Amino acid sequence: MDDGAKKEQYRRALDVAHRRALEWLDSLPDRPVRPELDVDGVLARLDRVLPEAGSAPDAVVEELAAAAEPGLMAMGSPRFYGFVIGGTYPAALAADWLVSAWDQNTGSRQPTPATAAVEEVAGAWLLDVLGLPAESGVGFVTGATAANLACLVVARDAVLRRAGADPTAGLRRAPDIRFLAGDAVHTSLVLAGRIAGLGAPVTVGADGQGRIDVGGLERALAGGEGPAIVALQAGDVHSGAFDDFAAAVTVAHRAGAWVHVDGAFGLWAAASPRLQHLTRGLAEADSWATDAHKTLNVPYDCGVAIVRDESSMVAALGAHAAYLPAVASISDPYDRVPELSRRARGVPVWAALRALGRQGVVGLVDGLADAATALAAGFEEVPGLEVLNGVAFTQVCLASRDDAATAELGEWLRAEGTVWASSSTWRGRTVVRFAVSNHGTDEDAVRRTVDAVARGATAVGIRG
After folding, report:
1. Of 11, 140, 289, 363, whose CB is crowded by the most CB atoms within 10 A?
2. Three-class secondary structure assignment of 145-210
C-alpha cells in the first residue's frame, strides 16, 4: 500500500469517528442516561468469531460505533450523578484526540519533549490553582486509586528511610508501618494501601458526616511507635465533608507521621475562594491525590499524584536502566509515576486549564457546589423524602423513611432514564446518592432531576 492509500485510510476512519462522536455528543442533553442494552445485548450485535479477512478501517469504526452505542451509558450527560464522574470540556476532548494521534510514550523528556513540556506546565498550573507547594512533584496516572497508590509508595519509602531502614531491601526486614485513617476512608485508598504493602488502615473514628476523629487519631498515634502514615480525606464520597486538616495534620506531624490526602474530587475546593475554608490546612500535608476526570472534567483516564518532596517521589518511583536516557538532574515524567509507558495524560489537563483560566476553574467548582445545593433544596420539597447529609460540596444523599422504598426509588430512576444516580448505604440507611460532577449540570438539569425524583417517589408509593 502506498503512502497516499494509507493517508486516505486514516482520513476516512477519522472522518467516521468524528461524525459518530459529534452525533453522540449532540444526543447527550436529551437521550436517556441509562444504556438501552446490557452486555449480552451488545454481544449479540458483535461478530464474535474473528474473521479470516480484514475490513476497511472506516467500515470497522462504523461497525464499532453502531454496535456499541446502544450499550453506552450517557456519562457525559448533565443528569448523570453516578460514581463521581465528570463530563468533558471541548478543549480537553480535542486535546485528547491529539494525544492519540501524536502517540507519544510520555516517559522521558528527551524523546518526547513536546508532551513532557506541556505536562510540566499543566503540573505547575495545578499546584498554583490548588494552592499547593510550587516545588511539589506531579505525576499523571490512570485515576484516583493509582494516584493514592503512587503517593502511598512514596510515603512508605520515606518513613522507612526516616526510621533508618532501606526500602529497596523490601518490607520483610523493615519495621512495621502504622497506617491510620478515619472510619469513612474510601475503598480506593484501602486498596492502594494493600497493594503498597501497608495492609488495610487502622481506623480511628469519624463524626456523623465522615470527618476523621482528630482526638482518636492523636490517641492512636500516641499509643504506638515507629513509622506512621496518616490518610486524610478531602470530600467524603457520601456527605462530601472534609476532614479538619489544620488540626489533623498538626497532630500527625507532631508524631512524625507522613500525611497523605485523598482528594479525588474534593481537592478542587481549594481552587474556590468561597470554598477554601473547607481545605484550611490541607496544603501542609505531604502528598495529595486527585482525579482530573472528576471535577476538572477531562476525559478518562487522568489521575494526579502530588508529593511535596519531589526527591522522595523520584527515590521511590524513579526508573533506572542503561537503555533509558538521562537528562541532567531534572526528573523525567516516569520518575513520578509507577509506570514507564503511558499516554500523555497531562495534555488534556493543560487544555482544560488553558481554556478555563483561573476564574473559569473557580466558576466550575462553585457551579458544581451550587447545583448540589439546588438539588438538595428541590428534593426537600418532595413529600416523604429527606436529604441525610449536610451538603458541604457536591454530594447529596437522598432517602425516604423506608429503606426498601428508597432502594425501589433508585431502581426506578435508573430504569426510567432521565437521571442516573448510585444507590448506597450510609449511616445504616439506604440512600440514593447524587454526585454533581458535570460542568453542564445547570438550572434546567437540576429542574429535570428534581421532577424525575418527584415522579419516581409517586410511582413507588413514597408519601409524606
Report:
1. 289
2. HHHHHHHHHHHHHHHHHHCCCCHHHCCCCCCCCEEEECCCCCHHHHHHHHHCCCCCCEECCECCCC
Kindly tell me the sign of the dihedral angle through the C-alpha atoms of 375, 187, 302, 23.
negative
Q: What percent of the chain has pLDDT over 70?
A: 98
On the question of pLDDT at 348 being above 50, the answer is yes
Please count the CA atoms within 13 angstroms of the CA of 332 that sit on its side-chain side: 25
Please provide residue 411's backbone torsions phi and psi, each rounded to the nearest 5 degrees.
-65, -40
- In sign, the C-alpha dihedral spanning 271, 275, 280, 282 is negative
Kindly indicate the confidence band of residue 327, based on its pLDDT and cuts at 50, 70 and 90.
Answer: very low
* Full DSSP string of 354-418: HHHHHHHHHHHHHHHHHHHHHHHHHHHTSTTEEE-S--SSSEEEEEESSHHHHHHHHHHHHHH-S
Grid coordinates representing 100 are 492519540
User: How confident is the model at residue 326, as a pLDDT?
Assistant: 55
Q: What pLDDT sits at residue 319? A: 77
Query: How sure is the predictor about 288, in pLDDT bands with cuts at 50, 70 and 90?
Result: very high
Q: Which three cell numbers stand for residue 259?
A: 500525611
Query: Angle CA(264)–CA(267)–CA(269) in degrees, nearest 5?
Result: 130
Return the DSSP state at 331.
P
* CA atoms of 255 and 225, how far apart (whole Å): 9
Q: What is the pLDDT of residue 323?
A: 54
Query: Is the distance from CB of 272 to CB of 242 less than 8 angstroms?
Result: no
Pair 228, 178: CB distance under 8 Å: yes
Is the pTM higher than 0.90? The answer reads yes
Q: What pLDDT, on a 0 to 100 scale, did the predictor assign at position 173?
A: 86
∠122-125-127 over CA atoms, to 5°? Answer: 110
As given in the structure block, the three cell numbers for residue 1 are 500500500
Q: Residue 141 CA to chain centroid, in angstroms? A: 11
User: What is the DSSP code (8-state) at residue 212?
Assistant: B
DSSP-derived 3-state class of residue 58: helix
CB 291 within 8 A of CB 302: yes
- Count of CB atoms situated within 10 Å of the CB of 190: 20
Q: At what angle do helices 57-68 and 3-27 cross, to 10 degrees?
A: 20
- Computed over every residue of the chain, the mean pLDDT equals 96
CB half-sphere exposure, 380, CA atoms < 13 A? 12
Residue holding cell 486516505? 8
Residue 3 is predicted with a pLDDT of 85
**Residue 253's CB: how many other CB atoms inside 10 A?**
15
Percentages helix, strand, coil for the chain, rounded to the nearest 5? 45, 15, 40
pLDDT at 311 over 70: yes
